[in-house]
Every structure is written in C-alpha cells, then in structure tokens.
C-alpha cells in the first residue's frame, strides 16, 4: 500500500545538553498543542536527541514530521505553535537548522 505524504526532517546543532533537552521539550509541548487543535494534517511528529556518533557531524537533536500534503506543511510553518517553537529554538541552537523535505509516494507497509 502506498500513500503520498510530505516528510520533513529537521536537524539541529545544540552543543549544550541542557539546551538539547529544552529543545526536545519545546517540540513535545508543540506536539501536544497541535494534537489538541486537531486542525493540521500532521501524521507524525517525533523528536529526540541524537546518539553520540561522529557521523552525526555535530547535529544533536532531530525532529521528523510527516504531513498529508505540502499545503499542510506550509500551514504548519505559519501556525502560532510553530512560531513559538522557533522563538525558543533561536536561543538554543548554534546555527540555523538543516531542513530536508521529502515528497512523494511512501510505502506504508514497511
């Protein structure tokens, strides 16, 4: 079975462990707010600290989101909960995040 989704992977360089935890907490707070609103077609939102691995290239926090469509992702980018997350992140990150967007059919059986 396949479906068309938009996946967004956001990688952050946050050197300080306390700040990493604050960013993860901010994402989880945003997730709770978005679930309560039930307005946006966010199919998945997962965030975690990265493992200590040299292949991580200094990226310490990763967020993975899936949306029902590009329009849903664009709506999310403008929503108040995302804007609030961006404000929190500004004071925590060493540089702007790396954002990768994947569009197209996804095999949902694996």
From TrEMBL:
Tree of life domain: Eukaryota
Protein name per UniProt: Stress-response A/B barrel domain-containing protein
Domain Stress-response A/B barrel: 6-102
A Pfam family that the UniProt record links to this protein: Dabb
């Amino acid at each position: 079975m396949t479906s068309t989704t938009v996946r967004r992977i956001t990688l952050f360089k946050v050197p300080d462990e306390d700040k990493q935890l604050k960013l993860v907490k901010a994402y989880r707070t945003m997730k709770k707010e978005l679930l309560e609103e039930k307005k946006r077609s966010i199919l998945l939102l997962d965030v975690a600290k990265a493992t200590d691995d040299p292949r991580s290239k200094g990226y310490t926090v990763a967020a993975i989101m899936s949306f029902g469509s590009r329009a849903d992702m664009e709506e999310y980018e403008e929503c108040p909960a995302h804007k609030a997350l961006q404000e929190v992140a500004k004071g925590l990150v060493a540089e702007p995040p790396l954002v990768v967007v994947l569009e197209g059919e996804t095999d949902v059986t694996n």
